[in-house]
Design a protein that fits this description.
Blueprint: E1 5-10, H1 16-27, E2 32-35, H2 40-50, E3 55-60, E4 63-65, E5 81-89, E6 96-97, E7 103-106, H3 107-111, E8 126-137, H4 143-159, H5 167-178, H6 186-202, H7 216-233
Parallel strand pairs: 1-2, 1-3, 5-8
Antiparallel strand pairs: 3-7, 4-8, 5-6, 5-7
Helix pairs in contact: 4-5, 4-6, 4-7, 5-6
């Protein structure tokens, strides 16, 4: 893998085992795995401790890499760049941007990571966004996972992207999420998007509540309170 390690970071994704195997076949080497670590910031920091090289691929547990992705063409990060993100296709609305995408990241940057709700936005140094697409972000593996993806992403976009995205671009992406209608559990992703944008507006005066976006228990309880009966009844 051109001197790069790779870490597959999963939590509770139903397809994680198969996507980890797919990643290993595509990258052509052993992909280390961290699973079920509580606390997103802690999980990312632990990734820095299991690799042997400064730069490594970091892959979310719901990312399905394109089997034609050319790993040999991936250039090392330039000085001052902490992370490069390749685009991922969104299966429920067709968007293709950095959300859920493949990452090449510095171990030292993770160790020096600051505070942000969108955890990797707090890395020191610059972040590059590649124009190429590396795969699909398969977050829509269950009603809850689809809802959670829409809720978290659109709450962060509606509040103001921590990556410096223009407000107009962020608004267009929120709108696309709320209109999600393709693929499995698209209706739940759309509902999550609407509820996440509303949550961002509600927390303007109480920003500490925004940290709930990284609390799996809180997210599950909010989802089941609003949609649990629908999931049970089908």
């Amino acid at each position: 893998m051109k001197g790069f390690d790779a870490v597959f970071l999963s939590y509770d994704e139903p397809m994680a085992n198969s996507l980890h195997s797919r990643l290993q076949r595509t990258l052509g080497g052993t992909v280390k795995r961290l699973h079920g670590v509580h606390g997103m910031r802690r999980a990312y920091r632990l990734c820095a401790e299991v690799v042997d090289h400064e730069q490594f691929f970091l892959v979310d547990g719901d990312f399905a890499i394109d089997t034609d992705f050319d790993v040999a063409a991936a250039e090392p990060l330039d000085e001052g760049v902490s992370m490069r993100v390749w685009r991922a296709v969104n299966p429920v609305n067709g968007l293709a941007y950095g959300y859920g995408g493949l990452k090449l990241i510095r171990r030292s940057a993770l160790r020096e990571m600051g505070e942000a709700v969108d955890v990797l936005a707090a890395l020191p140094g610059r972040i590059e966004f590649a124009q190429h697409t590396a795969g699909i972000t398969r977050f829509n593996q269950s009603p809850f996972h689809a809802w959670k993806a829409g809720f978290r992403e659109c709450a962060m976009l509606a509040r103001g992207s921590e990556y410096g995205m223009a407000d107009d671009d962020a608004h267009k992406r929120v709108e696309a999420w709320t209109l999600s209608r393709s693929g499995e559990f698209a209706a739940y992703a759309a509902a999550g998007a609407r509820e996440g944008a509303a949550f961002a507006r509600q927390t303007v005066r109480n920003p500490q509540q925004f940290d709930h976006l990284n609390n799996p228990t809180w997210l599950w309880e909010r989802f089941t309170a609003a949609h649990g009966d629908q999931v049970v009844s089908g």
